[in-house]
Every structure is written in C-alpha cells, then in structure tokens.
Write a structure and sequence with these properties.
Blueprint (H helix, E strand, L loop, with lengths): L7 E5 L4 H12 L3 E6 L2 H11 L3 E5 L5 H15 L4 E4 L5 E3 L7 H26 L5 E6 L12 H21 L4 E8 L2 E2 L1 H4 L8 H9 L8 E2 H12 L10 E4 L19 E3 L8
Parallel strand pairs: 1-2, 1-4, 2-3, 4-6, 6-7, 7-10, 8-9
Antiparallel strand pairs: 5-11
This protein binds nicotinamide-adenine-dinucleotide (NAD).
C-alpha cells in the first residue's frame, strides 16, 4: 500500500530535475501522473519507466489553454485530479536591476508566477466539485529571504508563497489543501547548467554541500520526498504552509548571489542559453 494509491496527479515541469523526481516518487507511492512539460524528449525515459501510470501532455505553463488541457487530460484519462504540482520553472532574468529589461521581466514572471496561478486556478476548478484535492507549488528559499537568487526570480517566488497562503484560505472549506515547498540549491539540470556549460552532478554536489549545515548536497529526490508528504494524508492538517528543504541554509544566514553581477539576460536552464 502506497500513501498515494489510486491518486491522480498533474506535475508541471515533470520532465526534468525536481519534477521528474516527484513523478518517480508519486508513481512509487501508487499514483498515476500527467507530466505537463514543454520538453517531450526529456520525458521519454519517464514514460518508458512507468508505462501506463504516466501520460505526457505538452504544456507551456504560461498558456491558459495548455494548463487547462493538462488538467483536462487527468480528468479524461484517469477520471479526476487529486494532486496538482505547480513545479515548472526557469532561472529567468539575471543581472543588475537597472539593466533588467521589461521583456525579461515578463518572461520570468510569466513562467514562475503566472504558471502557478494558472495551475492553481484550473486545479481548483476541477477539485471543488470533488470536495477534495491538494495543490503544491515549488517555491524556493528565494521565496523566504532575499539574496539567494536573481531579483525577479526572488520576487516571483515570494509571489508563489503569497498566492499559496491566500488561496489556502479560500479552498480550505472546500477540502482542498494548498501548500508550497521551498528547496534550497538542489542538484538538477537547472543548477548544473547555471554557469553556461553543463557541469557534472558530482562537481555541483560538492559545491552545494559546502552551503549545507548537513554537509551534503540536496538531490531532487530530497525535495520530492517533501512533496509526496504534502500530497499524502499524512499532511491532512497542513495547509497554507511552506516546507523549506534546504539543508538548513536559511537557518544559517544568507550569501549574496552572483546573479546580480555581470551582464543582464534571461537564463532558461539550457547551457549557453543566456541573452
Ligand atoms: P529543471 O530545469 O531540471 O526542470 C524544469 C522543468 O520545467 C523542465 O522540464 C522544463 O522543460 C520545464 N519548463 C520550463 N519552462 C516551462 C514552461 N513554460 N512550461 C512548462 N514546462 C516548463 O529545473 P529544477 O531544478 O527541477 O526546477 C524545478 C522547480 O524547482 C522550479 O520551479 C525551480 O525554480 C525550483 N527550484 C529549483 C532549485 C534548484 O536548485 N534546482 C531550487 C529552488 C527551487
């Protein structure tokens, strides 16, 4: 018996990194999952691994049409949606605030905050008639303090937390719990591609381990474990909360991040994809 036996989930950004680990965890705990991501190629291994328990729906989380369709696939293929995970993300705009363009603002906030708004909106609409459901959004330690990420990433992730707390108030009486997780730096393609070239996981893990009170880098599955807890009935009394999974980094002070130095641009996660 898994904690998520028979549950139906949608995971945005489920093709890579933390999202992929969430899909693996959810399936291992008994759920069926719709992976809603831009990147079908990246999802191929997941689909091979999990067979009928996983479907892929090409989704741009900035598109209301796409997000509504992803929720629709859960309902049409599996009959309902029990868990919505708003996880898709990019690093987005980097560089000094005075040189940050409106275009990079729009792109960053669109993926990181509008995407979460749309996922929350369409999951809520499907869950309310059921009288049950769980919505979990991937925030960041940059949602909790300043200085751990680029300006607009930090602003958008603070917004994710605000939306989580606000919507939890509305949806609690409908039997729907709304929470966030706040990972610290975690070894995923987002962090291994941060420097414009793809670094080995081990090299990034060694660097991240130095910032952890535990001396060990966080892996995607460490975050997925927290998400699976929040999705399960073990968290039945938990709503409007943010679960910080950061190896104690935010308990030990912050460090000024390099994102505010250098040239401005947008980081989407792929190596060399900065402009
Ligand atoms: P990742 O780059 O490995 O995965 C991100 C996924 O999101 C990819 O599969 C990508 O295709 C998808 N995606 C990007 N834009 C999309 C869009 N518009 N529509 C649909 N899918 C889109 O990164 P990750 O590290 O696994 O990040 C997952 C989440 O965790 C993000 O919200 C990120 O901000 C957050 N986070 C990551 C870290 C970290 O250190 N890795 C720390 C804190 C928070």
């Amino acid at each position: 018996m898994g904690r998520l036996d028979g549950r139906i989930a949608v995971v945005t950004g489920g093709a890579s990194g933390i999202g992929e680990a969430i899909v693996d965890r959810f399936v291992a705990e008994g759920a069926s999952v719709v992976v809603a991501d831009l990147d079908q190629e990246a999802a191929a291994a997941l689909l091979d691994r999990h067979g009928d328990s996983v479907r892929f729906q090409r989704t741009d989380v900035t598109s209301e049409h796409d997000v509504a369709a992803a929720v629709g696939v859960a309902v049409s293929e599996f009959g309902r949606i029990d868990v919505m995970v708003n996880n898709a993300g990019i690093v987005g705009a980097v560089g000094p605030i005075a040189q940050t363009s409106v275009e990079s603002y729009d792109e960053t906030v669109s993926v990181l905050l509008k995407g979460v708004f749309l996922g929350t909106k369409h999951a809520a609409a499907a869950m309310q008639p059921q009288g049950s459901g769980v919505i979990i959004s991937t925030a960041s330690t940059a949602a909790v303090v300043g200085g751990l990420g680029p300006h607009l990433y930090t602003a958008a992730k603070h917004g994710v937390l605000g939306l989580t707390r606000s919507v939890a108030n509305e949806l609690g009486p409908h039997g729907i719990r709304v929470n966030a997780v706040a990972p610290g730096s975690t070894v995923t393609p987002m962090t291994t591609n941060l420097r414009g070239v793809t670094e080995a996981d081990e090299a990034v893990a060694a660097r991240l381990a130095e910032r952890s009170l535990l001396g060990v880098a966080a892996l995607a599955d460490d975050v997925a474990a927290g998400v699976a807890y929040l999705a399960s009935d073990d968290a039945g009394q938990v709503t409007g909360q943010c679960l910080v999974i950061d190896g104690g980094q935010t308990a030990s002070g912050t460090e000024v991040h390099r994102f505010h130095a250098g040239s401005s641009g947008v980081l989407r996660g792929a190596p060399g994809d900065e402009h």
